């Protein structure tokens, strides 16, 4: 996706006029540039390398779980932020993924116009691809500003979405670990 940053800046200027504002007044003069810069950085985010994995002999039933991942996304219906907490678990097949890559994968999925369900689906699909593991679970806990600062104005509402695959939905031990990992990540 390529962004026409000059056009975005122009449109912000027009938007300020449509708001009834004077875009040339001192406080607003640089606002179109700043606002366009935000969208360029947010939507143009480059996650970098997401697939560094290390061969690892796995003994027994090994679960890798990273909780407390925090990311910002943008609700595609209202263009308002989603503050998202993510927990990712996977059972390695024959290699382990560099831990930071789980955060990079999350950012890659979140930094676009999104719905929460699609973010967690996309993270899970990517983790399955780069780890080669079928046992992958992703849980997202989202605070949607479109539900708190406008609309229904339900400040405490949190949306939980899960994309659990392989043994996670069927194995009570794995499911329990995922659930406790999700609550650890809330702190
Ligand atoms: N499934 C899903 N819905 C979302 C997400 N983010 C926002 N929404 C919902 O998208 C819906 C859009 O509904 P509309 O009726 O078209 O828009 P609206 O009149 O602004 O709706 P209200 O938010 O109820 O005021 C709302 O119910 C939002 O809560 C998301 O990540 N996933
Ligand atoms: Zn919304």
UniProtKB/TrEMBL annotation:
Keywords on record: GTP-binding, Hydrolase, Metal-binding, Nucleotide-binding, One-carbon metabolism, Zinc
EC number: 3.5.4.16
Domain spans labelled GTP cyclohydrolase I: 9-180
Pathway listed: Cofactor biosynthesis; 7,8-dihydroneopterin triphosphate biosynthesis; 7,8-dihydroneopterin triphosphate from GTP: step 1/1
Zinc listed as a keyword: yes
Gene3D superfamilies reported for this sequence: 1.10.286.10, 3.30.1130.10
Binding site for Zn(2+): 75, 78, 146
Reaction catalysis annotation: GTP + H2O = 7,8-dihydroneopterin 3'-triphosphate + formate + H(+)
Pfam families: GTP_cyclohydroI
UniProt family annotation: Belongs to the GTP cyclohydrolase I family.
Subunit structure: Homopolymer.
Full protein name: GTP cyclohydrolase 1
Organism in which the protein naturally occurs: Streptosporangium oxazolinicum
Phylogenetic placement of the source organism: Bacteria, Bacillati, Actinomycetota, Actinomycetes, Streptosporangiales
Encoding gene per record: folE_2
